[in-house]
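Quick illustration, no need to memorize.
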Amino acid sequence: MRIVGGKLKGKVIEPPAGFRARPTTDFAKEALFDILDNEYEFDDLKVLDLFGGTGSISYEFLSRGAGHVWCVEMNPQNAAFISQQARKLGLEKRLTVVRHNVFEFLPLCTEKFDIVFADPPYALEGLEGIPDKVFAQDIIHPGGYFILEHGAEHSFAGHPLLKKEKVYGRVHFDFFEV
């Protein structure tokens, strides 16, 4: 896995053997950030990365100039890895790793974000309710995106805030706008 754009483009992130996470493929990540590059100036964006996994999406936002990223990851080994990589990449001042269950964190969150990204395990029970849980907390600035990565087994086509869906292989990105 690598950082595909920005100042850290080409930097390789290598999780240790046995690491339990499914990182977004480089192909899908490149496509996602091509879309975002056309719609956002990254400078000073505030981003919330839910289900951080390897931290790949957080590093990508920071590499492209996001002001600060909050990365929520429940698994202690994964959270430690994300923090370690942030230090290694010189991103530790702009990345806050929150070791917490996403569903317990959301009601506690007092920040507002320009973009909220979520990449839950594709088989997560209750995945279909994540958009409404995020919107219920009023944590996205008007005009901001909530982006949900998921597999083909889920569809949000009828959701009133869904603006577009992009599919890259088995990866689906749904863009919801407040």
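The mean pLDDT is 95.
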